[in-house]
Amino acid sequence: MEIAVIGGGLAGVEAARQVTRLGGNAVLYEMRPVVTTPAHRSGLLGELVCSNSLKSTDLTNAHGLLKEEMRILGSIVIETAEQTAIPGGKALVVDRERFALGLTDSIESDPRVRIVRREATAIPEGTVIIASGPLTSDRLANAIIQLTHAGNLFFYDAISPIVDAESVDRDKSFYASRWSRDGTGDYLNCPLSREEYDTFYDALIAAEQIELKDFEGAAYFEGCLPVEVLAERGKKTLAFGPMKPVGLVDPRDGRRPYAVVQLRKETASGNMLNLVGFQTRMKYPEQERVFRMIPALRNAVFLRYGSIHRNTYVNAPLCLNGKLQLKSDERIFLAGQISGVEGYMESALMGLMAGISACLTARGGDFVPPPPTTCSGALIRYLTTETRNFQPMNINFGLLEGYSKKTKEASVERCLEDIRGWKRQMGLEKNTPSC
Fold this sequence. Notes:
- The longest helix is centred in the last third of the chain and has 19 residues.
- The chain is α+β, with helices and mostly antiparallel strands.
- The N and C termini lie close together (about 5 Å).
- The chain has a six-stranded mixed beta sheet, with helices on one face. A six-stranded antiparallel beta sheet has the order 10-11-12-13-9-14.
- The chain has two domains: about 270 residues, FAD/NAD(P)-binding domain (3-Layer(bba) Sandwich), CATH 3.50.50; about 140 residues, Elongation Factor Tu (Ef-tu), domain 3 (Beta Barrel), CATH 2.40.30.
- α1 runs parallel beside α10, α2 packs parallel to α10 and α2 runs parallel beside α12.
- Helix content is about 30%, strand content about 15%.
- The protein is built from twelve helices and 17 strands.
């Protein structure tokens, strides 16, 4: 049996790989490069359109614990990320291009995966995993709306600008990671005095922004707010948010700056730098004018401007069961951000889970979600628990059953023990007969 996977992002790639690991065959539909999106720049599978940081690797952090679960379950995304990692402090940061190339090469060389480069405008027959992502095309989105009978929700997501590293003034910036004591670090920091911050803030507030013509009102995801939306909440919001100087000392004067903009490497060579936390909907000329008010960026060359785009997702508690199947049509599984999670790793995890669930179900087996003491099980429980105002969710310890700050280490150990036990329960220790 062949399982159709719609979408070649992180969730789709992960779903296809899990299907083939379990002995099945997958046909992977990806519309790029035939049909483009407002955010993608290539036809590579698994292209990252926002940050190139996959967040913490620390097991005492929920994001790090989630990655460890995925590693235990044989995640192709984690494997490729670790192979293409570049320095990023305690975060797993990848070389954007090498990461996407690695995923693409791995899937293209899988004899059990057939890649179809065209837009899926309707739902295929048979078992289907929809992992079309936050930029689902209008025609496919309409087909999903008809299936769910619950309508689609949406929110707006924004990405940060990227500048040429050589154009940053090194006399007005310094390398450091927060709390580092050796004068080195993975981030290039651009400090601002109180007066420079005030000037920057006033310009940011007054800057022209792109109008959101497609929809009335903007429902932003709280974890990825445009910098100007944050600024509108108060003059000191940025200084206590993405521009907070906590843990940083300017080696030029030995003092903590009033505010700081951190630049992070986009590639291993370090020739491209991302403005961390500076997602924006400013018009392109305004981005140059405003961001060049940051002293170290007075002569910055912008390699990519920040932008804003629509993210599409379903009201998961109304639409999905614990197997990630549509309640209205159980041959269809949802994965990735369209299922109602937020974040790269959370999306990839849902692809991993949907791939396992679809394959086991197609074979006549029974998929049972992991225990809610695990990150995987906690996210699935969140997606399938009715709530009045559903919104996409990142992983956090508050979702894990039985978690307590006082017993964090015990909770982490239990999580990993439970995910290994679930892996054995589902028969995932080795490849199984064809789906």
